[in-house]
Amino acid sequence: MTGPGTVPGGDPREEMIAHLPSMRAFAVSLSRDPALSDDLVQDAVERAWNNFDKFKPGTNLRAWLFTILRNIYYSGRRKAARESMEKLPEEGAVPAVKPDHDGRLALRDFRQAFDTLNDEQREALILVGASGLSYEEAAQTCDVAVGTIKSRVNRGRRRLTELLGLIEGDKLELTDKPTMAVVFAGRGGPVIS
Questions:
Q1: Which residues of 53-86 are buried (b: 16+ CB within 10 A; e: fewer)?
Q2: What are phi and psi of 171, to 5 degrees?
């Protein structure tokens, strides 16, 4: 299998640096903490470097790196949950509303709405929408069935659409391509100008 993120020949360590920006973006989407995200990426790179003997040449390097990063993040969360009895913020604690100014989708409102999604939906939208992984690659990264990823993307997209007050066919002014990719992952989306 070849495609984006695959290394047809040669040492995959040479290509790893090209994936650092997307790894950091994925880490930020998971942790919502830039400092922690940098640590997650560093840990993932270190773990990948030490385990390149387990990487299968010709497979998707980016998906492999994202899987490592994701596993480190969730392992850390499980460890923190065992060590602390602090509660996570309740889902939906910060409602988002569609901005009234010229119909523009405010990035601040998007972030608030995005943060109300559960971890699985947020992760699926980032992998498929913003990071550009296929459903199959995202499913492999999350170690779930392709249908599960499709369902998470669909439920997350519907929830974001609802929170932001968007309807099918709405004309939006594009704030940024990654935001629009997440909101409309896996479908044609609204008219964007």
A1: eebeeebbbbbbbbbbbbebbeebeeeeeeeeee
A2: -95, 120
At which residue do the structure tokens 């249908």 appear?
147
pTM metric for this prediction: 0.53
pLDDT (tens digit per residue) in 121-170: 888 888 887 778 889 988 988 889 999 999 999 998 888 888 877 766 55
Q: Which domains does the chain carry?
A: 13-83 (1.10.1740.10), 107-187 (1.10.10.10)
Q: Helix 146-163 vs helix 107-116: angle between axes, to the nearest 10 degrees?
A: 130
DSSP 130: I
In angstroms, rounded to a whole number, what is the distance separating the alpha carbons of residues 181 and 189?
Answer: 9
β-bridge partners, 171: 191
CA 48 from centroid of its chain's CA atoms:
19
DSSP E strand boundaries for the chain: 171-172, 191-192
pLDDT in tens, 91-107: 555 545 444 444 444 56
| CB proximity list for 42: less than 8 A, separation 6 or greater | none
The phi and psi torsions of 49 (rounded to 5 degrees) equal -60, -40
- The rounded distance, in Å, linking the Cα atoms of 152 and 121 is 5
